[in-house]
Specification:
The complex is a heterodimer of chains A (110) and B (115). With 110 residues, chain A is mostly beta strands. Chain A contains no helices and eleven strands. In chain A, the strands form two sheets. In chain A, strands 2, 4, 5, 9, 10 and 11 form a six-stranded mixed beta sheet that branches. In chain A, 37% of the residues are buried. Chain B is mainly β and 115 residues long. Chain B is globular, with a radius of gyration of 13 Å. The model of chain B has no long low-confidence stretch (mean pLDDT 93). Chain B contains no helices and eleven strands. In chain B, the strands form two sheets. In chain B, strands 2, 4, 5, 6, 9, 10 and 11 form a seven-stranded mixed beta sheet that branches. The chains are: A mainly beta (110), B mainly beta (115). At the A-B interface, strand 5 and strand 10 of A face strand 4, strand 5, strand 9 and strand 10 of B.
């Protein structure tokens, strides 16, 4: 069963705008990871945040984690057309197997 | 640097046929994984191998078998394919399993249709 649930399911924005995706999960985690999937390709790891961290940055990506609310958010600033993809959160509980959410489809229009 | 390579990329089978999906990684990773991705379902773990010589069931193992041939290769076998196994299959690898915080590296998938 899915551990994480992304929200929204789909997001459409213009280039230059910020995109925010949310992930909620059900049980305690060791860490939470975000992945990107371009159409017809495999998943690419974006960022990992540990359960004792609250915020992490990588380039135009900002991830927050609120363990009390069992939620995380991914912010992509100044979006580009090349950011068009599906974004998945994945949680690690116990042994480091990943449990993925259903993803958010992001469309960035020029 | 190929990363994770999956073969074949596409396959059509008839119900009851068998086939093996191949996966190889060149990153000297210890752990390898097989997932399936269905529309609206995200990725679900079928089997994983924490290290060479070990395999364990994931969330949806029924109808599948795996072999960790060596450190580089991890294959997934469908013994008697069923239409419900129509899906996109992804192989992934990571440096190590256990409680370490390691990202996974994915291949580009095998698109399998079973008629």
């Amino acid at each position: 069963s899915q551990q994480g649930e992304e929200d929204p399911q789909a997001l459409s924005i213009q280039e230059g705008e910020n995109a925010t995706m949310n992930c909620s999960y059900k049980t305690s985690i060791n860490n939470l990871q975000w992945y990107r999937q371009n159409s017809g390709r495999g998943l690419v790891h974006l960022i990992l945040i540990r359960s004792n961290e609250r915020e992490k940055h990588s380039g135009r990506l900002r991830v927050t984690l609120d363990t009390s609310k069992k939620s995380s958010s991914l912010l992509i600033t100044a979006s580009r057309a090349a950011d068009t993809a599906s974004y998945f959160c994945a949680t690690v509980t116990g042994y480091s197997t990943l449990t993925f959410g259903k993803g958010t489809m992001l469309l960035v229009s020029p | 640097n190929a990363g994770v390579t999956q073969t074949p990329k596409f396959q059509v089978l008839k119900t009851g046929q068998s086939m093996t999906l191949q996966c190889a990684q060149d990153m000297n990773h210890n752990s390898m994984y097989w997932y399936r991705q269905d529309p609206g379902m995200g990725l679900r773990l079928i089997y994983y191998s924490a290290s060479e010589g070990t395999t364990d069931k994931g969330e949806v193992p029924n109808g599948y078998n795996v072999s960790r041939l060596n450190k580089r290769e991890f294959s997934l076998r469908l013994e008697s394919a069923a239409p419900s196994q129509t899906s996109v299959y992804f192989c992934a690898s990571s440096e190590s399993g256990g409680r370490s915080n390691q990202p996974q590296h994915f291949g580009d998938g095998t698109r399998l249709s079973i008629l």
